Amino acid sequence: MRSGQVVLDVEGLRMSYGTNEVLRDVNLQVRQGEVLCLLGPNGAGKTTALEILEGFRTRSAGRVEVLGADPAHGDERWRARVGVVLQSWRDHGNWRVRELLAQLGAYYTCYSTEEIERPWDIGELIAAVGLTAQAEHRVRTLSGGQRRRLDVAVGIVGRPELLFLDEPTAGLDPVARREFHDLVDQLAGEQHTTILLTTHDLHEAQKLADRIVILTGGRIVADGTARELAQRIAGEDEVRWSQGGERFVKSTPESTRFVHELFQRHGEAIADLEVRRASLEDTYLSLVRTTAAEPAEAAR
Ligand SMILES: Nc1ncnc2c1ncn2[C@@H]1O[C@H](COP(=O)(O)OP(=O)(O)OP(=O)(O)O)[C@@H](O)[C@H]1O
């Protein structure tokens, strides 16, 4: 998945709000078609980083290139190629769902290309985000989760090449969450949309992301697939079993192979087998605790 061209390139990004230095030295490259999850504790600077990449916030220092342009100077054509789902916005209460999406979608028509017809067909889009039953409802009458689905629809109505999603599944019920995951898979798989999203749900990150980036202490402290991160920091898998009335525990980086060999050697004598794989959660907690324990100067 890392073979596509670089669509997002960040080097030495810094951001301060007054004396509060939030981003200290962020370096990141994202390739076309990647789904990248940005993780980090509350206040780590994820939204700030996203807002800079989206061109909504001016950075203090560093080089940022998004779809070949500096987002601080992105023109309308550039903006039409970028989709944004913010944490929350509460406008357009009087509009009906279909009417609002058609109105917003019309803006993108002139930005169609030979490869990408803009906007998304509104009926198809409404179905894709699961709002068909509410298509003629006024926005202010939607529930929180339905509103979040609409936020996602607004973000993708122009068929963006690059999509930023800030906590897209916050407040969604399990069914809506699953549908959203399918939609992300569809956007990345069929439309090759590059997706950068933030979440606090590690299972979601594990499920959706080709690559996970952990931001804490103003820097990226880990970058890799869920499995790579789990193993690199949390360590090895743990295999437990009993044999002849005795309990055994073995730590191994290759639990599948180990279990295979165990059964080859001892067959039916093996009982109570359990495999605990190194988890992303272990890694995440360990990294975030380490950074939180460091004095700010040490992290610089
Ligand atoms: N407009 C602003 N003015 C001043 N400080 C701000 C502003 N926006 C964010 N901050 C501060 O910057 C830091 C990072 O905030 P940000 O919202 O980027 O974090 P986050 O990682 O998205 O957090 P969360 O997971 O809680 O959404 C916090 O200390 C916050 O108080």
Automatic annotation (TrEMBL):
It is found in: Cell membrane. GO terms for molecular function: ATP binding; ATP hydrolysis activity. Coiled coil: none annotated. One of its GO terms (cellular component) is plasma membrane. It holds the Pfam family ABC_tran. It comes from the Bacteria. It is a peripheral membrane protein. Residues 8-242 form the ABC transporter domain. The keyword Transferase does not apply. The keyword Repressor does not apply. GO terms for biological process: response to antibiotic. Keywords: Antibiotic resistance, ATP-binding, Nucleotide-binding, Transport. InterPro entries: AAA+_ATPase, ABC_transporter-like_ATP-bd, ABC_transporter-like_CS, ABC_transporter_ATP-binding, P-loop_NTPase. PANTHER family: ABC TRANSPORTER ATP-BINDING PROTEIN (PTHR42711:SF17). This is ABC transporter ATP-binding protein. It comes from Streptomyces jumonjinensis.
